[in-house]
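The methods section describes the discrete structure representation at length, but only in general terms. The central task, working out the structure tokens from the amino acid sequence alone, is never made concrete. Nothing conveys this as quickly as seeing an actual entry. For illustration, here is how one protein appears when written out as sequence plus structure tokens:
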Amino acid sequence: MDLTQGTIIEKQARAKKMMLWFGIVSLLMTFAGWTSAYIVSSTREDWLSGFQLPSEFYISTTIIIISSLTYILAKKAVKTDKTLMATLLLSVTLLLGIIFIVFQFLGFSSILEQGFYFTGETSNVTTSYIFLIAFMHILHVVVGIITLIVVLINQIRGKYSSENSLGIELGATFWHFLDLLWIYLMLFFYFFN
């Protein structure tokens, strides 16, 4: 397919998708760098081997997976012109995204209750990395929530339909990336503890 062909709208859509993928690849490289540093640091004498993540992180993982499913269903509803259902599913996705963040902070609280802080005398390199990586993911989920709010507002205003679903497609792609990134991070923390 010749990428120079097509209408202006098609070219703009391709450009927006390409920019999103450049951003996703950039984020992947950033998180790959942090997880690589985590692996290298695990050879230190003060490393907490066998540290178990709090259950709140596992609960939040389930929540973000469910939120991806609701986003998929919302996108499908838009493509079949089920406006009310799409709005409802996007609202549920937004709520689940907020609940995900709440459980992340509850997980941080559990780590703090174990006596491990991000910095200072009671910090540990293991938990400091967990705080850093999980918090950076939370910041990106906040960006995802902001984009989800924009998508939801556009949906309420009737911008999306089976003929025009680019905004919801871009939002869903970013949201699913955040979901898959968190699953990767959880598996990483589980197997490299």
The first helix runs from residue 8 to 41. The mean pLDDT is 93. The radius of gyration is 19 Å. The helical segments are 8-41, 55-79, 83-113, 125-156, 166-191.
